[in-house]
Amino acid sequence: MENTIKILYIGKSQESIDALKLSSGIVLNVKDNTLGAIQFLKDEQRPDAILCENVVSGGSAIEIFDWVRAREHFDLVAFFLVSYEFKEEMLKEAFLKRIDDYYVLPLPPAKDLIGRIQFLKNFRAKLEKTPKEILEEPVVAYKMPVSKRIFDILVASFALIFLSPILLLVVIAIRLESKGKVYYTSKRVGRKPFDFYKLRSMRVGADAELSKLAKDKNQYNTAKQAEVDFSKVCPRCSSLPEGQTCSAVLHIGDHDICDYWYNIQKKEVASSKSAFIKIVDDPRITKVGKVIRNTSIDELPQLINVLKGDMSIVGNRPLPVYEAEILTQDIMSKRFLAPAGITGLWQVELRGRGGDMSEEERKRLDNEYANHFVGDNYSFWYDLKLILRTIPAMFQKDTV
Length: 400
Known about the structure:
alpha/beta
C-alpha cells in the first residue's frame, strides 16, 4: 500500500512490537539482534524508519546507527533510539549523533509515530532533490573597509582631545552625586565580545535590579512573560492508560512533568520573550545620569573602544550577552556582519521619533545596516549622513 510506513524494529519489547503490529498503517519487521538487523538491511528493501532499543544482542543502537549512516542509500531512513528508562547521557549522545528521536518506552501512539516518520520522509525527499548549489550557500564574509577604520581613528582621536574638558566636568559631577566608580564597564558583543565603556549614569548595583524591572517595565514586552505551567495536562499523556506517560518523566522541584510536554511549553515561553530590554522610566538612573544620557555624553568613553578597534563610530549597537545569545539563534545573526557602533541607523530613527519603536522594526533596521557590509555595498557617505542626522537628534526629552 502506498501510504503504509515500513518500520524495522530492533529489540525485544513485546509490548512495543504488539502495538506496532496492531496499527493498520504500519508494515513491521522485527529483529532482536544486531547481526539479524544488518543482514535484513543488506538483503531487503530499505524501511522508512528504524526503531532500535539502546542495547540489543550483539551490539548497541549507536553502533547500528553509525553503520546505517555510513551508507548513502539509507540517507532517507529515519532512525529512532528506544530506551526502557530515561538517561540524560543517552539523550545527549543521541543529540550529538543527530539521531532523529529518542523515545522512552512505551512508544507514542502509532498515529503520532506514523506522522513523525512521514514528515521526516517527505522532508528528506525534498532535500535530496534540492540542487547542491542551493544547499551550499556561500558564506557571507565581513571585512572592515580601510576608509572606515581610518575615519574612526581620526574622529575618535580629535573628539577625545576636544571634549576632554566636558568629560572632566561630568566626571566631577558624577562623583559628587553618588559614590562608586565614575565609569561603567560591561561585556558587550559586536563582531566579538569586548569590554564596553560608558560614564556611569545609574546608581551603584543597578545591574542586580535588571531582572525584576525587565518583567514589569521592558518597552519591548508585548505580552506577559509566560512560565511553564506544571498544572496543565499533557495532551499526549491524557490519551494513555493511567500511570503511563508519552515520554520520560522529569522531576523539577516539587513537580513531575513528561519530557515532551515540558519542552513544548519551554518553546512557547521562549517565543514570548523579547530579544531586547529597554526599561521605561528607569528608576535606577541618577539626576546627572539623565542629563548625560539625553545628550549622549555618557557614551563618550566608547571613543576609547573605537581606538582599540572594538567599535566603529557608525554601526549596530553592541549588545549585552543575554540579548546577543537570543539574536544569534535566528535570522537576526545577520546584524553581526556590521561592526558595533556608537551611533547607527536604528538609534537615529529612534531618537528622531522620541523613542517609540517596536522590537521588530529595530531588528529590521539592524539588518538593513548590515547589508552595507556584504560584498561592495559599503558607502562612506552613508555613514557620514547618519552622523549628521545624529547631531540634532542628540538633544531630546527621552532617554535612549
